[in-house]
Fold:
Amino acid sequence: MGLISESVKHCLKHSFDFSGTTPRGVYWKFVCAVFCLFIIIGIWADNASENSSVEALLGLIILLAIIPVISATIRRIRDAGFNPWWGLLLALPGAQFIVAGMAMCRSHTESMIVNSDFDQNIKLLQEQVDKLKSEISRLEREYPSKETANGK
Structure:
């Protein structure tokens, strides 16, 4: 998913889905979009008068934005290969940095792909070694060394 709008749509679509995974790129684009939204809301709240209806509207927008962030974070933690119960740290003041660090980790599915590529590369390397051994033995039969020729 390349665009920020696609990432936001994906995360909003899965707002109440705490199962499954969210890829790293989609998650961080969504978090950046929500962060920008919070900055805009903060600027608007500073410029707004002491109107309680504006404050209530801003509070509602923030509450509605937090639920998709929490669900996306839990899905991201699962994708990174951690237990999703680590998402409970989101409720503790200051512990959000631990969760953000976990969300920065490589995707569990990406590491599985890397491991399967590694196994495949070993198999290809072994095939190349076997081909070289057969070629060496063919060349030794075709061009015997001086010790082999003198010993016969």
